[in-house]
Please model this.
Amino acid sequence: MSIATHKAELEAAGFTVARGVAVLDHTGIVVAEDHPHGFWSKNAEVDAILAQPVKVETKLVRARNEDGHFIADDPATPDVNEAWVVKKVKKVIKKK
Model:
């Protein structure tokens, strides 16, 4: 899992997430960092938080254009509803 995905849990545990790729402890020392092939960490608490699985849920939301205005459904395509899009909602599953 990436550090950016678990940002809220890391900050709740007292760590600081810098630029979404580094985790700093309370003294400002980097204790974990994302890399293209995974992440490294020298803190067991950070390892435990990053090991938690992330559940991805979806919900339907109104489609918007670049200006933020709603997009209407195109009647020429009866099998597709362009007025609604699927949005991913990430939730972290906490271990009990």
In short: The radius of gyration is 19 Å. Residues 44-50 form the longest helix (7 residues). The chain has two domains: 1-52, 53-96.
